[in-house]
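Complex 606.
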Amino acid sequence: MCGIVGILGKSAVSTNLVEALRRLEYRGYDSAGIATVEAGSLARRRAEGKLRNLETRLLSDPLDGRTGIGHTRWATHGRPIERNAHPHMTAKVSVVHNGIIENFRELKATLEAKGHRFETDTDTEAVVHLISDSLDRGLDPVAAVQEALQHIKGAFALGIIFAGYDDLMIAARKGSPLAIGHGSGEMYLGSDAIALAPFTDTITYLEDGDWAVLRRSGVEIFDSEGARVDRPVINAVASSLLVDKGNYRHFMLKEIHEQPEVISHTLASYLDMANARVAFPDLGVDLAKISRVTISACGTAYYAGLVAKYWIERFARLPVDIDVASEMRYRETPLPKDGLAVFVSQSGETADTLATLRYCKDNGQRIASVVNVRSSTIARESHAVLPTLAGPEIGVASTKAFTCQLSVLAGLAIAIARARNTITPEEETELVTALTEVPRHMASLLHHDENYLSITDVLSKARDVLYLGRGLSFPIALEGALKLKEISYIHAEGYAAGELKHGPIALIDETVPVIVVAPEDELFEKTVSNLQEVAARGGQIILISDAEPEKAGCKLAGHIQMPKVAPLVAPLLYAIPIQLIAYHTAVQIGTDVDQPRNLAKSVTVE
Ligand code: M6R
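Predicted structure with 5-amino-5-deoxy-1-O-phosphono-D-mannitol bound:
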């Protein structure tokens, strides 16, 4: 969840550490800090809150060391205050850490009994004292870290520097990702390659359990058994331009507007557009023979999976089991022989999704993952990877990753349906043609910001908002509510429209806006009945539909006119207004759209 960086430089590294941390702020921004080796001793600067506070601190109190580590924090253990900010250190060693040390209480008790004094509420400090203790007993830094790693339980990525060692940094990875960057007479460490993009694109990813000794001349990598191993050196394309806001006010708005383009790229890799047929890669399993598909993911990615359930069941007539990964990982769900398990994740590092993937793999499933970060752990542990071509998504609220996930999953549903002969070639052509038209429809939807002003006026005054949808629109209602609550902090809930009368209707009065996602499909009339029930109780209805507003049969507080499209692609298009409604409401309220409170982009803890 946190972001870590390290540099063995030719000159002072503090400016470059901060530059790299800026690219990792999406992983957490509760506090930030750096530590360097200054004339043989360790020194650090830390600040509560965003990275700019650390920059201000460094202006008045600079660091000049050529060897340093840095950290941007998403708090797990201990409040987000300066005392708990990384790096943590003793006089001998300084550590930055991403992840959770599960046995820190036991370690702390043992170390305190030996006379170590702890200053923070963090789990990380146990690692610092553990290494210090080994150094006190005369071990050299490499042996001290190797010994400490035997005692630490949990998921972690560590960057470590030592007093008196200007040309040494040690890194270790278990569960949390870590990339090593190769420079010319310089070496780098980062939570991902994007952090290192301004300095190098020559990258080595540590494998799970690896630890590495970095010196300016290069790196030696060891596996969990301590054996020297070679890991590939790759060229990672993470251009600095890709993470620029351009002319947009927020990354989220830029990413919403990128959707027609990234959807085109994504669809182009899964469809034979010229012949209007699906052109899906071989998943290494006979799609005609699978008896069930299991899908798991978290948050927005889970809602993409929920849409896929409707698609696969409808077009391929194949049962789909879906659950949020945090539940499925402990559910001990029985799995069919030779089943296909699909995992959906933007980051490819979400801890719960990864754990569920491992459960399904251990239980004989063929694993396919829909991921945006191709070098991620989830991608690497899958039998087949179905990349989304969304490019880096920086805004914490997922937008373009979601619609790219839907694009891949729509292709998958058609591919399974074709293999199982549940659609005719003519139907396949119709579905593929509908998908091909999505980028054009999206582009036209993105040019009407004025439609949202009166709606955001209503929403920004509300305390609670309900989202309703039926069938394929139900996951979109859930996604709409998630989007609104995460960036505007307004309480919002999504419901299957038919569930309204089983409880949520009690909430409705004239202060509660109800956003109804209702394409004019075979379920439209049913949803209109629910809309009447809301109107009868004074709720303010905002309708998102391709139907004329008159068809609602009641007064509307707002209406977004959608284009007429095939039911298959409606979720992709209806995602746009729900993203824009959330975005404009948050802007009107004045929240931090790209970095909403308490959240992080990559959730690598349970
Ligand atoms: O990286 P992942 O797709 O696995 O992340 C899953 C969720 O944490 C993520 O979708 C989260 O719900 C977003 N902030 C929603 O906008």
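The first helix runs from residue 14 to 22.
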